[in-house]
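During the second year of the project, the team shifted from modelling isolated chains to modelling whole assemblies. The rationale, set out in the original proposal, was that interfaces cannot be judged from single-chain predictions alone. As a representative example for this report, we include one of the complexes processed in the last quarter. Its constituent sequences, exactly as entered into the pipeline, are reproduced here:
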Amino acid sequence: MIRVIALTLALLVAMPSFAVEPNEILDDPVLEERARDLSAELRCLVCRNESIDESNAELARDLRLLVRERLLAGDTDDEVIAFLVERYGEYVLLRPSTSGSSILLWLAGPLMLLIAVGVGIGYIRGRKLATDPVEALSAEDQARLKALLKDE
Amino acid sequence: MIVELGHFALILALALAIVQMIIPLIGAHKGWASWMASADPTASAQFFLTAFSFAALTYAFVVSDFSLQLVVQNSHTDKPMLYKVTGVWGNHEGSLLLWVLILTLFGAMASWFGGNLPPSLKARVLAVQAAVTVAFLIFILVTSNPFTRLAVPPFNGEDLNPLLQDPGLAFHPPFLYLGYVGLSMSFSFAVAALIEGRVDAAWGRWVRPWTLAAWLFLTIGIALGSWWAYYELGWGGFWFWDPVENASFMPWLIAAALLHSAIVVEKREVLKAWTILLAILAFGFSLIGAFIVRSGVLTSVHAFANDPERGVYLLAITGIFMGGSLVLFSLRAGAMEARGVFSTISRESALVANNILLAVSAFVIFVGTMWPLIAELIFDRKLSVGPPFFNLAFSPFMVLLAAILPIGAMLSWKRGRFTKQMKPLWGIFALSLAACALLWAIQTGRSALGPVGLALSIWLVASALLDLWSRTGRGGLSHRLGRLRRLPRADWGKAVGHIGFGLTIFGVSMLMAYEYEDIRVAQIGESYTVGDYQITLADVQDVEGPNYLATVAEIDVAQGNYQIRLRPEKRVYPVAGMPTTEAGIDNGITRDVYVVIGDPQANGGWAVRTYIKPYANWIWLGAIIMSLGGVLSLSDRRFRVGAGAARAPAAKSGVPAE
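Output from the structure prediction step:
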């Protein structure tokens, strides 16, 4: 009985499927390679942080087919991307554009590195010029040294 | 009854933690020895009470006590015993209890092994640790009580998320938490030092083993998670730049920076304020990580039990601890004057560069992870930041880091001589370049990733070996080998850690540059070639597991005389209603053959995916070797014997350059 219930349940649950299905693959290997590269840059809109290349979702499959359709129609990579952005918004891009405020995201790293290097160099310079407390004598030591020298 | 006792023990632990948060601090301020010493028994008792509470919850899972809400939601009588136990931390409440358990464990260890700390510093460290424990105990008791009972217990449970029913993932959280929470110890030391107003070489020596331990557990935890993703998610990805992965990677990077800057404090008494700041930030990123995972602000595959109330509370904890410690830092940092002097070409400068690269790379990940949130709140743009961004923005830092690492490791402290100390490295430099050029010529027209990765890994590994060898001085081979054995463990730890880093870079770049994939429909009995391999789909069967149903394929992989049969599976867990894939993997040193079985096709046959993944295992091998380096360093003599107050004055007079 339990077996029967388990099997019925199993049938109700969607079986896992692949990301890219064999029947989606284009005959032209160059176009297919371009399609795969583009797919890795596009987000599956209903998934959590997955590209359409990796996702099993129905929508991801539709988008993969759409990308291949556009490529077959002779679009360039940029045109395919532009087409998808126009349709689904920039949310679809896993690599955000550099337009508008997004430039801040791209510049955050390089700018921070510049600042950090600047501060770092300043610090190292400062350390180089500082007097070495090990080598420099304290006032007390200086007095003792003077006293010793006087004795001689 | 046992469950209620567990709940009660947790409340008692909270009461003790509140006492430990206040009394030792007053004692340290007034110089009352007995008040300071009160932290020791309370720290131990807190740990034992929390351990009892954790054991009580584990007991409830083991006997499948379905009157507990948590057990109902995350367990099932058919589940194998291993996963009944690991199910304890496979959910929000239980994992938070594990978090608190580790928090009190570290507090107790600081009390047990901190005998050589000055009493006031020890009291303050334990008080700060207790304050963190109080925050999390209130959090767990008020918002996420694992001991909630049900009035009407159901007949059976709802089963654990099947993705979590896996040995790799079963032990991923405990290691990760040992890392995350271990950083609370560095934080406590930093805040205690700020209250104390004193940071010296001895402090650097005390804080380093704790950071080292946290970092090496974090390394193992992250590696386990990545390895699990590789074999479980069905296409062999090992890193996804998922917000939650980033949440563990940021503290790892900061801890790595802290590890290195604490050496500078210990040896040279410079970079003090910066090291304190890193210690605060490292734990800060741990807290932000907890917030990201548990609040659900950034959705991801890992997020469990999302709840706005919990998110707000965690944000408050993060805000209070970070805000408080940073204010304290800004008040006191000025008082920590540096003592050592060094020239531009020196080990110190190289470690400053190391810190800059690690900290800025963590910052880049932080900005990238939070950007979708920032863009939506401030600029009203709904956008995604995914792997293509992180690969592009993060990798250059690792390339730079790997490029300067061998030079920095060879330079002497204080005043290095570039031309002289670079001399032995030129050979390795030439070798790396030659290997790079060779691979470039062979691969024709592919990305630079492979050749650059190869060059960097040769550069790192060979120079680490050379560094060790150069420490053996002059003399005959046997003499030098003898000295090699007697080198301080810390030297070995350094070399081994850096070799591990090189191996991971090698694995990542080879896998990413030269992976080969084949997707097709295969009939049963059909044979085809992928790369150098003959693949045969021998059979497909339906099999029943303990709590799942599986479609199992038998796939033969052959190359020359070499032959192996792989059994990739597709499983469905009826209770949880979730499918999973179990890839068939032939692990090898130079490559993995990775096969996945897909759906049956309408016109007969099965969809089969085959991947050839070059040097994939080197990624995790490198991580394990890196953490082994951490273990070696941790076992160094200076952390074991007399690393205490007695030596502190001696260390102050400057450490001679090595």
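The helical segments of chain A are 2-12, 29-39, 58-72, 77-88, 102-129, 139-151. Chain A is about 60% helix and 0% strand.
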